[in-house]
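#struct-pred
JK: can someone run the complex with adenosine-5'-triphosphate? inputs below
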Amino acid sequence: MIGEVSALMGRELRKLVRSPALLLMTMIQPVLWMGLYGKAFNLTGMFSIPEDLLSRLPPDSLRVVSSAFNAALTRFFGSPEVDYFSYVATGMAGVIVLFVSVFSGMSVAWDRRLGFINKLLAAPISRFSIVLSKVLASAVRAMVQSGLVVLTAIALGLRLDTAGPVAVLLGFTALALLSIALSSLIIAITLRLKNWEYHVALANLLNLPLMFTSSALYPRAIIPDWMRPITDINPLTHAIEVLRSSLLYGQSFDLMASLNHLAYLAAFSALCVVVGSYFAYGTLNAER
Amino acid sequence: MKAVECSSLKKVYGNVVAVDGISFDVEEGEVFGLLGPNGAGKTTVINVLTTLIRPTSGVARVCGYDVLTQQGSVRRVIGLVPQDLTVDDELTGMENLRLQAALYHMPKDLARKRIEEVLEQIDLNEAIHRKVSTYSGGMRKRLELAGALIHRPKVLFLDEPTLGLDVQTRTSIWTYVKRLAREEGVTVFMTTHYMDEADANCDRVAIIDRGQIKAIDSPRALKSRFGYDAIELEVVQNGIDLKELLSNVSGLKGIESYNSRVLIKAEGGEEVLPEVLGRLISSGVTVNRVEMRKPTLDEVFMSLTGRRIRDEHSSKEEVLKQRFNIRRLRA
Ligand SMILES: Nc1ncnc2c1ncn2[C@@H]1O[C@H](COP(=O)(O)OP(=O)(O)OP(=O)(O)O)[C@@H](O)[C@H]1O
Ligand SMILES: [Mg+2]
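RT: done, structure tokens with the ligand placed:
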């Protein structure tokens, strides 16, 4: 089965490398969001003290005021050093994982439309390999794109303050778990759908609500109370939190909190993989 | 052992009976054709035999393996070229073949050897290292054929292998299929709605219509059993009623006349023709031209079902399908 999966993944990855245009196009949206939100709405800027005010304040009260501002920044953005652009950019590195994973169903729908799936099904391979290779390929693609988003953000001025390679690895592990979870669900659903247009509708239905209810754009602390429970169960929030603190918070990286997020993601992803492969297997085996 | 056995095979989709309880066998080494119009159920039969769908009822075996209970064994002994083009556009021909070999768990060196062997047969030459998106329709079909043969299947299923290709390419595809079948010793199970192709290439054909098999035999036997010879005359009638004059010629099965043209259906045209000519000439009809055609499978189909194989509806569907194929070839 390892041979089957690696052969099928080889196909997917070759296609990934051979269509850089597609890779770049998928990135347009997150990069736009990043520029639009991060550069235009300078949320953290609201908490900085204007220069003219600064010069007129007595030194003592200056210390008090700036520590109050710093406390507010820390409360909202996790660290007083974080600028809003970096905050949104790391959010987008998570959002692109969402986009890529949700659209992973597209390649299944396409293979099915072209009859490629039938050729696989007529071969003596495990139905599970077919699904697994799709899920893993989607996760790899999501990682690559997410990495590219981070690099783009650095080029645009992201203030990197990593908590070390292990922390960054944890951050990307969180993204991988998220991608595996979402891809297996979507792929299981897409295999059932007779028409790829439904898949596009489904993807649009999922993408924006999941993005806006996560902590990609706004700190959890300023999210309205009624929405906060949604933010907290949204797996995207958990993935973004780990990645963000690993990339931006430097020494104040909170390992325990990150491990908690990872545990949540691992559980979610295990659930999705089990449910997803159960349905996908059933569809590929017994359907029709 | 039979290559394929079906008995009372039935497949129902909702309220559409796609395959309506058919039974037939295919001998080992045969080139067997399933012949029928669009929607007859050909693809459904192939899908059942290649384990892609489950029959509603009935039994089907490939090389003795049951398609329901021994799927793995069936899959190992078959090769499939589906109706749609399924090679991957973004990979090279060679990469497609390697992927195919991997799907059949062939070790690397064996795969390399087999790929060389099949490549010798299909004349793709250096194009094999190009992306498939640069191939013509005929090249793609050849690549599909090669891929389906990599693992030395015992039975090769071809679903409308020449659909949407031009006549010349169709002929060359058949040359390849027959050559491969001979050199590799596989049984070929194909579907088509091109009657002439089935006639020229199949050892035996089954005529299927609306999910039922109407007749099954060699093309030659079918034609002599169900088809009539057609005699076409160009005459100057000189006021004589031809229908009445010829009505009692033995072996004559029908007569139609349009102005100077007369169409006659006959059993044993070789005997009917001299008799017809004798009567016409002795009654003073001027005969300017005579032509006799042996029956085709088209006529066999018509006499079995009362319809031509390509009626309005199906030809429209075919045009759409062809357009889809062409669009894909260009994309
Ligand atoms: N998945 C399906 N769901 C519902 N009906 C189906 C399905 N597949 C096939 N049919 C119906 O079953 C009948 C037989 O279809 P099939 O594809 O086997 O025909 P065919 O002989 O291969 O035709 P063609 O020459 O167009 O390929 C058709 O009426 C078709 O509409
Ligand atoms: Mg068909």
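RT: quick notes.
The two ends of chain B are 44 Å apart (CA to CA).
Chain B has a mean pLDDT of 87.
JK: thanks, will look after standup
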